[in-house]
Design brief:
- This protein is an alpha+beta fold and about 130 residues long.
- The chain has a single domain, classed as Electron Transport, Fmn-binding Protein, Chain A (Pnp Oxidase, Chain A).
- A seven-stranded antiparallel beta sheet has the order 2-1-5-6-7-4-3.
- The protein starts with a helix and ends with a strand.
């Protein structure tokens, strides 16, 4: 468990201070917008994953310890920016899904980072409404 603690701290620092501020401004980056479970304010998080039909699949590095997963568990109504367009959807944590197998179907670079830094992988499916 101690190794997970440092990995999670490193991952949070990397994403909050370096990657996310840059990624949220990148036009092609997929953004997931949840509603803050405490603040009620919109929270945007860059995510990696893949659209398959009317669903978007991703794997969270830290599962239910990730703030955006906690937010979507409190309110499953989300928005996701795909190819520069915002879509409404409903998020579903999928603890029964094999996240390692799922990562093999998602973009390679993002999957490598998730496997390297992840501590509690969790698959999330977003059913797109529009």
């Amino acid at each position: 468990m101690a190794s997970n603690s440092w990995r999670m701290r490193l991952d949070r620092f990397f994403h909050r201070r370096l990657a996310n501020p840059i990624s949220t401004r990148t036009p092609g980056q997929v953004l997931l917008e949840t509603t803050g479970r405490k603040s009620g304010q919109p929270r945007r998080t860059p995510v990696g994953g893949k659209q398959v039909g009317r669903q978007f699949w991703l794997v969270s590095n830290h599962g239910d310890q990730s703030d955006y997963v906690r937010n979507l568990m409190a309110d499953s109504a989300v928005r996701i920016r795909l190819n520069g367009q915002w879509h409404h959807g409903t998020a579903h944590p999928m603890p029964q899904d094999d996240p390692i197998a799922r990562l093999r179907t998602l973009p390679r670079m993002n999957s490598a980072v998730v496997r390297a830094l992840g501590t509690n992988l969790l698959t999330v499916r977003i059913d797109l409404a529009d």
